[in-house]
């Protein structure tokens, strides 16, 4: 079975020396933040939560994050994401609020198409005031985003590279486009999504 780790209360987070994150969620682990608020201390310049994952024939998978409020304190950082999902597959993030992150609120990252990554899910995640993108995904396929809200990112609210499914995702007040889909996104579906008020001069939905 999977291990459940629950945090209860308010926490100010510091990274350990030599690390690029504050909290690591290993494979087959559930991080329960339903009664937690996380605040990144000044000058940490790191990712707040790192979801472990490799790729290839044996990807690390089935990590979950439940709930929580994550404050990235972006005015006092030079870099860092709210939640970084590194490669892997089949993670679940649900009912989480992420705001004031220096770079991307929710970032799914891999390095190339040679190592398959994907089948991640984000459900009812709300992301506000990201320093770059609200949701960013590259070299991932078949990720699913359902009932998420992304608002006030300094660049695009949602930037996807790969094939994804979006249901009832609401983008509001983007610094760039609401949904930015460069070449390589053939097959991505936006179903009952709302794109509202992009920056002047940027299309609501960009398709490369």
Summarize the helices and strands and which ones pair or pack.
Layout: E1 3-13, E2 21-25, E3 29-40, E4 47-51, E5 64-66, E6 69-71, E7 83-86, E8 92-94, E9 97-99, E10 106-109, E11 121-123, E12 126-128, E13 135-138, E14 143-146, E15 149-151, E16 158-161, E17 164-167, E18 170-172, E19 179-181, E20 189-191, E21 194-196, E22 205-207
Parallel strand pairs: 1-3, 2-4, 3-5, 3-6, 4-7, 5-8, 6-9, 7-10, 8-11, 9-12, 10-13, 11-14, 12-15, 13-16, 14-17, 15-18, 16-19, 17-20, 18-21, 19-22
Q: Overview of this structure, please?
A:
The N and C termini lie far apart (43 Å). The protein has strands spanning 3-13, 21-25, 29-40, 47-51, 64-66, 69-71, 83-86, 92-94, 97-99, 106-109, 121-123, 126-128, 135-138, 143-146, 149-151, 158-161, 164-167, 170-172, 179-181, 189-191, 194-196, 205-207. The strands form two sheets. Strands 1, 3, 5, 6, 8, 9, 11, 12, 14, 15, 17, 18, 20 and 21 form a 14-stranded parallel beta sheet that branches. It has 208 residues and is mainly beta. Helices cover 0% and strands 45% of the residues. The chain is built from no helices and 22 strands. It is globular.
Cα(first) to Cα(last) distance is 43 Å
Q: Rg, please? A: 16 Å
Percent of residues in β-strands:
35-45%
**Total strand segments:** 22
* Structural class designation: mainly beta
Low-confidence stretches: none
Structural shape: globular
- How would a crystallographer describe the biggest sheet? 14 strands, parallel
How are helices and strands ordered from N to C? EEEEEEEEEEEEEEEEEEEEEE
The proportion of residues forming helix, as a percent range, comes to under 10%
The number of helical runs is 0
Average pLDDT level: 92
Q: Oligomeric state of the chains?
A: single chain
């Amino acid at each position: 079975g999977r291990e459940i780790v629950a945090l209860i209360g308010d926490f100010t987070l510091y990274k350990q020396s030599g690390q690029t994150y504050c909290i690591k969620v290993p494979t087959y682990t559930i991080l329960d933040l339903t009664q937690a608020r996380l605040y990144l201390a000044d000058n940490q310049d790191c990712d707040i939560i790192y979801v472990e994952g490799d790729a290839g024939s044996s990807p690390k998978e089935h990590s979950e994050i439940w709930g929580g409020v994550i404050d990235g304190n972006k005015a006092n950082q030079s870099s860092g994401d709210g939640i970084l999902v590194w490669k892997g597959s089949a993670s679940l993030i649900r009912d989480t609020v992420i705001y004031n992150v220096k770079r991307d609120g929710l970032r799914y990252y891999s390095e190339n198409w040679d190592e398959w990554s994907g089948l991640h899910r984000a459900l009812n995640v709300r992301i506000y005031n990201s320093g770059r993108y609200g949701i960013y995904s590259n070299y991932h396929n078949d990720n699913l985003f359902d009932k998420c809200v992304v608002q006030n990112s300094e660049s695009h609210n949602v930037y996807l590279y790969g094939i994804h499914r979006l249901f009832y995702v609401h983008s509001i007040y983007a610094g760039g486009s609401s949904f930015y889909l460069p070449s390589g996104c053939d097959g991505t579906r936006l179903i009952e999504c709302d794109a509202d008020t992009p920056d002047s001069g940027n299309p609501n939905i960009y398709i490369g």
